[in-house]
């Protein structure tokens, strides 16, 4: 029997009894979404300031993406890659042109995209760079977040994500984030390095935003050492940080413009989350022929990867990003948001700093990392009609859908200010 939910309490009790306890959600049960808004079971309306970890940059239930999904859902959803389908080719052409790469390998979740990039990089290392068998090394950054699979947690710093999940996958070394010299010295020491895998802004770690020159220097060091620069833009990509990709730097054109001077092309680009606007899991790895060419039939894949439903949804979702100029909006409103938050930093003791880019921002609370203050503030924000979530102990990430208007953003900043005020001693 499918139980009908009539109260939040009832829904939470069901999850508690029948679901694995692998998350610690805020006590709110959502039943409807539209644009920047969410509604709970009792009908209370909220501003969404998480956007499903930046998967719904286009806003909840975007009508254009919904129409694409419905149309394709009634036509053809899945054939597997045992056969061709008539949406995959157009999707591959569309997405490679959109981001300026020769080829794409479509998968489903972000973690699978990361796994795919790791496999391609290793194979490239053996077959193109001449690394001895089983010696390929991939450099990652401290405090990275690249997903939850066994290999990916092998190179995490997060003890909670790692403990008792060993033995871990070998072949990864860590460097401090935003430290080009550390990267250089590892590459000088270790000739088996095939790739550097990095987030252009570390989202889960607490929206750590590196120096403006970091990505450019990373790309240069990688190039000098014949090492692949792999950008994980699963969270930062698709207009979130005020440009189509975080590696676009300060360019705010929609789509890849004619190789503007601030754009740093990674050797591999990993996308997920907002690539499908929250409707259906789609992820992708993009690379040029000399890299993607190492993958031959039978060497990698996924039953759902490249399915016509996901492919149709992703094209509609990417169309929306361009047509609605979401990168420009994120850039403009991001500046306003940080200005407003900076006023709180100046005024209230409890707010330590604000950082971020575009509409991916974090406010650091003036309390210890293991305090519950950030959580308590998020609960109070919820009561005041705004949903956000702490990343780590004392950090709150603020990432609304990119369709938010300036007026709505000011209203939200008022809610945040009012809430913070209540915590000031
Ligand atoms: C969310 C995220 C992932 C993992 O994506 P899933 O779809 O949850 O597997 C990987 N890297 C980054 C940077 C992310 O933000």
From TrEMBL:
Which Pfam families does the UniProt record give? Aminotran_3
User: Cellular component per GO?
Assistant: cytoplasm
- Report which superkingdom the organism of origin falls in: Bacteria
Tell whether Disulfide bond is among the UniProt keywords: no
Xref: InterPro entries: Aminotrans_3, Class-III_PLP-dep_AT, Orn_aminotrans, PyrdxlP-dep_Trfase, PyrdxlP-dep_Trfase_major, PyrdxlP-dep_Trfase_small
Per the UniProt entry, the Enzyme Commission number(s) are: 2.6.1.13
What does this protein need as cofactor? pyridoxal 5'-phosphate
One of the GO BP terms on file: L-arginine catabolic process to L-glutamate
Q: Which UniProt keywords apply?
A: Aminotransferase, Pyridoxal phosphate, Transferase
One example GO MF annotation: identical protein binding
What pathway or pathways are given for this protein in its record? Amino-acid biosynthesis; L-proline biosynthesis; L-glutamate 5-semialdehyde from L-ornithine: step 1/1
Record keyword Transferase present:
yes
Q: Which family does it belong to?
A: Belongs to the class-III pyridoxal-phosphate-dependent aminotransferase family.
Q: Which PANTHER family match?
A: AMINOTRANSFERASE CLASS III, ORNITHINE AMINOTRANSFERASE, MITOCHONDRIAL
Please give the name of this protein: ornithine aminotransferase
The gene designation is: rocD
């Amino acid at each position: 029997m499918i139980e009908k939910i009539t109260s939040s309490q009832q829904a939470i009790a069901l999850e508690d009894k029948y679901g694995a306890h692998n998350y610690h959600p805020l006590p709110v049960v959502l039943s409807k979404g539209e644009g920047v808004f969410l509604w709970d079971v009792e009908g209370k309306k909220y501003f969404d300031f998480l956007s499903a970890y930046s998967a719904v940059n286009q806003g909840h239930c975007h009508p254009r993406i919904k129409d694409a999904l419905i149309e394709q859902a009634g036509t053809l959803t899945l054939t597997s890659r045992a056969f061709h389908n008539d949406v995959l080719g157009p999707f591959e052409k569309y997405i490679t042109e959109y981001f300026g790469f020769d080829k794409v390998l479509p998968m489903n979740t972000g973690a699978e995209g990361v796994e795919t990039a790791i496999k391609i990089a290793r194979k490239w290392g053996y077959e193109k760079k001449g690394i001895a068998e089983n010696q390929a090394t991939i450099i990652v950054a401290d405090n990275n977040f690249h997903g939850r699979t066994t290999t990916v947690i092998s190179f995490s710093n997060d003890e909670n994500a790692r403990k008792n999940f060993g033995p871990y996958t070998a072949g990864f070394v860590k460097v401090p984030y935003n430290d080009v010299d550390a990267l250089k010295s590892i590459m000088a020491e270790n000739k088996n390095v095939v790739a550097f895998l990095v987030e252009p802004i570390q989202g889960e770690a607490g929206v750590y935003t590196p120096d403006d020159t970091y990505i450019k220097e990373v790309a240069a060091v990688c190039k000098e050492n014949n090492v692949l620069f792999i950008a994980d833009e699963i969270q930062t990509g698709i207009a979130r940080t005020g440009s189509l990709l975080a590696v676009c730097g300060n360019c705010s054109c929609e789509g890849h413009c004619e190789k503007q001077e601030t754009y740093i092309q990674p050797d591999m680009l990993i996308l997920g989350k907002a690539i499908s606007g929250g409707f259906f899991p789609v992820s992708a790895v993009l690379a040029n022929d000399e890299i993607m060419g190492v993958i031959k039939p039978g060497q990698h894949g996924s039953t759902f990867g490249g399915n016509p439903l996901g492919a149709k949804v992703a094209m509609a979702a990417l169309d929306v990003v361009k047509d609605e100029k979401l990168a420009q909006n994120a850039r403009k409103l991001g500046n306003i948001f940080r200005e407003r938050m900076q006023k709180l930093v100046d005024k209230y003791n409890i707010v330590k700093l604000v950082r971020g880019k575009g509409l991916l921002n974090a406010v650091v609370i003036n309390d210890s990392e293991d305090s519950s203050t950030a959580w308590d503030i998020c609960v109070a924000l919820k009561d005041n009609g705004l949903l956000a979530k702490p990343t780590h102990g004392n950090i709150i990430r603020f990432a609304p859908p990119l369709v938010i208007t300036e007026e709505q953003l000011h209203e939200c900043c008022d809610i945040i200010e009012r809430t913070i005020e209540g915590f000031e001693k």
